[in-house]
Amino acid sequence: MPSGRPAEVMQVRVWSAVNRRRTWMLDAIRTRLWPVPTMAIAVAIVAGLLLPELDQMLDGAMPAEVSRWIFGGGPAAARDLLAAIAGSVMTVTSLTFSLTLVTLQLASSQFSPRLLRTFARDRFVQRTLGLFVATFAYALTVLRTVRDSDNGGTVFVPQISVTVGFLLAVISVITLVLFLGHLVRLIRVETLLGSVLNEALRNAEASLEQLDESSDNHSAPAPPRDAVPVAGSGTGFLTGVDAQPVVGAAADAGAVVALQRKPGDWVVQGTPVALVWAAGGGRLDDDDLSAVRDCVTDAVRVGDERTPVQDIGYAVRQLTDVVVKALSPGINDPTTAVHGIGHLSALLCRLADRRLGPSVYCDDDDVVRVVVEGPHLAELLDEAVTQPRHYGAEDAAVLAAITRLLRDLAWCAGSRHHSAIDNQLTRMRRTVAGQDFDPAEREMLEGLALATEEALAGRWRRPDVV
């Protein structure tokens, strides 16, 4: 390794680990409905406390041109207005929550339960709820500062604060109208499929770039027979692996760690998730083995649901679920299934020229220390095609869409993926042969299959364009 490069590689790895943890944290926040409304309530309360102080400082000192545009009523009018704002906005908030819950229920039953994250992380929904609850909290906070002379006190009407409350109420009404329109667009299947595809491409870009940086022409070593298993500490989906700390612990112990489970796999507490062995052969010291085992346990993140941060196959599962759901007898929507297969085709074609499979992490001396399993394109292709082919076997349009997926992927993928595509094409032909299609449908499907074979044979050349 050239001199000076270890420091650069180490710096890149540190920043990659920091960015990965930041991505995990942001994903955890963005996929929940409560953080944005909670922060909005806090800001509203602070504003409701500070603006009346500003009102008191400027009481009687504002120019007539400014006073003409702000609230000019007395204490009773101010109380009535703030109470009306608080009551009406709370009603609107209840309506908004009800519509959101109905939308989530519809998406779960009509499309897939795994699409609920797409709704929960929608920023417009979060900000709308935040605006409504903030307006409510602000109105209540300002209401307590209005004073009259009934009890012999000094009359005080926070004119600026009441005016701000009125503006927030108007903005809330406008936002409600926009929210309804946004909700109608959000529940459209085309919007859902596009959202899943775009999020998958963004996460796959970042994740696969890290794989490219960390695995520089190193092959994954095969675990020896005497490798020591490391058991998982929790039960759930493997949501991510923070490999950099494990690299340091493995380097200190002179060990190699191979994660046997990839992000998205189901892990049961007490079952092996990794194998550890000495890099140069022999047996690891008990203290070193214990240190590496503890580091692996801390680095493996397990959750109740899959997340797209490191799980490349999660988006394939989401899109496939939509296709399978559309082909169920209760829904019977083959057009949606065809659209979903088209989005699967776009995703797989973008992944075809990326480095998939296991990622290899080396220490500063360019020695392999950690291997993290990852899905191969053949696995992703099988997950995207097998169930739709099975449940849509009697629909020629669905089988045609799957064959077009294979044709497009054959055009985009390199020769290393051709065997997987050819295997799926053979299985597709067997499915077609077992159906009672008319001659025109068989001719159409066979034409698509021949076009796929031509792409696999190199009859179509991929143009040198970006």
UniProtKB/TrEMBL annotation:
Transmembrane among keywords: yes
InterPro entries with a match to the protein in the record: DUF2254_membrane
Keywords: Membrane, Transmembrane, Transmembrane helix
Residues passing through the membrane, by range: 31-51, 81-104, 124-143, 155-180
Keyword Electron transport in record: no
Coiled coil: none
Domain of life: Bacteria
Identification of the protein by name: DUF2254 domain-containing protein
